[in-house]
Design brief:
The structure is a homodimer of 388-residue chains. By secondary structure, chain A is of the alpha/beta class. Chain A has eleven helices and 16 strands. The first copy, chain A, has helices at residues 78-88, 97-109, 128-137, 160-169, 187-201, 213-230, 250-263, 280-285, 309-319, 325-343, 366-372; strands spanning 4-11, 18-23, 26-31, 40-43, 48-51, 53-58, 112-120, 143-149, 174-178, 204-209, 237-241, 266-269, 290-292, 358-361, 378-381, 384-387. In chain A, the strands form two sheets. In chain A, strands 1, 2, 3, 4, 5, 14, 15 and 16 form an eight-stranded mixed sheet that branches. In chain A, strands 6-7-8-9-10-11-12-13 form an eight-stranded parallel sheet. In chain A, helix 6 links the parallel strand 10 and strand 11 (237-241). The radius of gyration of chain A is 20 Å and the shape is globular. Chain A binds chain B through residues 68-69, 71-74, 76, 272-274, 277, 302-304, 306, 314, 318-321, 323-325, 328, 363-365, 367-368, 371-372, and chain B through 68-69, 71-74, 76, 272-274, 277, 302-304, 306, 314, 318-321, 323-325, 328, 363-365, 367-368, 371-372.
């Protein structure tokens, strides 16, 4: 593996221009006028250098990406979308290794180096989604981990719990959940079940929580209590969407934020449509890790999404009414370091010894990188230049 | 002027492929296998053909577009942004003919053929913004009309009313207003003043209304009453933003929608940040014209915005939680026909006799055009191919 010397980059957070020497897939040195005889030299022309982008919440298995446009065919209700999904996925060949591969290639081109994807598991589809995602990801320069996701109900869909367990046995890294109250109708048993699976299999846990208002807020309390009991591994438990945090009053949100921080619970958001967005600044101030993901991309649930995590961070910043560079940087943090904490990555960052998963953008700083999300100057995975 | 034959386009709404013959700046014929000896032939390769995009609400005079990134420097409050604007515009050379020109060139490249821009007028800046926009637009292939806009207060900013009148005398096409209650403190006198100016100068009227809830809704009633009294010219009065329509209950919004429709009042929205979005589907169902615009682009009020009206329509569709192609088409309608009605354009459209202001995109239909907002296949203004 050839050494690579990245000349004249501006590593995010360092404050000035620097060269980055990459050796054996790792960052070897960061500094001024680094000398590296024999290394391949790539001139970054002053581009901003970020650690690889992390999509901490997507649904690769559902995607229709790369095929012809499929007009959205579900009604406006959540129940309508679930029914439409079940009715049409077979007809459209979902899950499809080809479609997932096409989407992963686009994500790679945009500089995403790590993905956590929620893969549907139910008696109808079994583990076919898990297998399709594994097959697509295999050999591609991107790290994909999966969440065994009971999209069509857990307690309400007999046979699903056993399949989740089977998925974990097969090596799926995390177990999921879905609106323990609003959809699955029995929050305590639902949470006990998924936390039990996470404990037994040493798995991470990432729960979808769309339930809003006080119902959602109360479930966040239940989750924080169980996460605390699960042990000290901060970041092991993630709550995705958590619309309730964007709906309750600020004092209530603050109390919950402190409880989530104490329990090490991550909040992942995609800032989709007009749904409430958790208060990122408030959560960060309380010490809560915030991660960002795309949610669905061109699937039966909705036609939107590009695969570009800088664009997704723009949506998060925009919906958060972030105007200053410092605020917008919080959205970028969610799409990088925050996601890395959610996924439990080690060796993630821009310091010597970190894995050389890097993306460079022609931008003056995080504000411009997120707002403009320009084409990438460089994408590097494990020390290999994929695009420049 | 050479005739142009656009081969193999799919004009929006026609349902199938067609050729479009352009002669003397107008659409001469639309049909299958059009024969046009001597015409320049442009193959559209099956691209969707739209009438030129209409940005019905922007702020060209404020823009910092095309220059280096300027980190946002105002606080979170509206008063903070107003103060910051006044303090920093001179330092940053706003208004700037160069910056406005750079932004207009980008808008043109994206296929925008008509713009209505709200130009700040106050005793500090006088009519310099109006002159800068005129100078920038002169000679560019895009139609720019202005609204004399009292950004820094009307009744509360002595001397502004006289300057608005001076602007109208100089040929500015429309008069503006700004939160007659919330900012200008005297809604009745404010509205009487601007409606009076519109009547005296035969001008159009476009009022910013951020005031929310019942305060905003009540002002919409006042505006509808005055628009009705002003006469039958549908589309002469526009209310921009109209956040209140997205906040009040559905029955109230319906009543207001019918009043606005009856008075021919247009609602213009940009779907910015997390601010409420007027209910587009509900408004259209009641017969209200809905227009779409960018609002500010890279200025002291906020760093966002690209100049691409298809991307802006995406934001409107996304915030409206539009998933089906039919719904998304409402956002595209706002960025085309709706804007054209707001601006009072004649000869706008895709029929023989209409002006040949056209944009083509490689998309299967309005859904894909808005969601993906891909690079343009063709941009044509007054029959001249600007880009293909």
């Amino acid at each position: 593996m050839t050494d690579v010397l990245l000349r004249d980059g501006r590593p995010w957070g360092l404050g000035g221009p620097a060269d980055i020497l990459v050796r054996g897939g790792l960052i070897e040195r960061v500094g001024e006028a680094v000398d590296a005889p024999g290394a391949r030299v790539v001139d970054l022309g002053g581009a901003l250098v970020l650690p690889g982008l992390v999509d901490a919440h997507c649904h690769l298995d559902k995607t229709l990406y790369g095929g012809p446009w499929v007009p959205h065919s579900a009604g406006d209700s959540l129940a309508g979308r679930i029914g439409n999904d079940l009715a049409r996925r077979a007809e459209l060949g979902v899950p499809s290794v080809e479609r997932v591969t096409a989407l992963l290639r686009t994500m790679i081109a945009y500089g995403t180096t790590h993905v956590r994807t929620h893969t549907d598991i139910d008696p109808g589809v079994g583990l076919r989604g898990v297998e399709a995602v594994r097959e697509a990801a295999e050999g591609l320069p991107i790290d994909v981990t999966q969440v065994a996701f009971p999209q069509h109900g857990l307690l309400t869909n007999p046979g699903t719990a056993e399949l989740l367990e089977e998925a974990l046995k097969s090596g799926v890294e995390a177990v999921g959940g879905l609106d323990p109250a609003g959809i699955d109708r029995d929050p305590v048993r639902h949470l006990d079940l998924v936390f039990g699976l996470a404990e037994r299999y040493g798995a991470r846990l990432d729960l979808h929580l769309h339930d809003g208002g006080t119902l959602g807020a109360w479930q966040l309390e239940l989750i924080a209590e169980r996460a605390k009991a699960l042990g000290p591994a901060a970041g092991r438990v993630t709550v995705s969407h958590a619309y309730a945090l964007g709906e309750i009053d600020e004092a209530h949100a603050d109390r919950l934020a402190h409880a989530l921080a104490e329990a090490g619970v991550v909040v992942a958001t995609a800032a989709v449509y007009s749904y409430p967005v958790p208060p990122v600044r408030r959560l960060r101030a309380a010490g809560v890790t915030v991660a960002c993901g795309h949610d669905g991309i061109r699937d039966l649930w909705g036609p939107y999404g590009s695969g570009d995590m800088l664009e997704r961070a723009m949506h998060l910043a925009y919906r958060s009414t972030f105007r200053s560079d410092d605020d917008i940087a919080l959205a970028l943090e969610a799409a990088t370091y925050g996601g890395a904490r959610a996924l439990g990555l080690s060796g993630y960052g821009l310091s010597p010894g970190d894995r050389a998963d890097l993306v460079a953008v022609p931008a003056s700083g995080p504000g411009e990188a997120v707002v403009v999300h320009p084409g990438r100057t460089l994408v590097m995975k494990d020390g290999v230049v994929l695009h420049n």
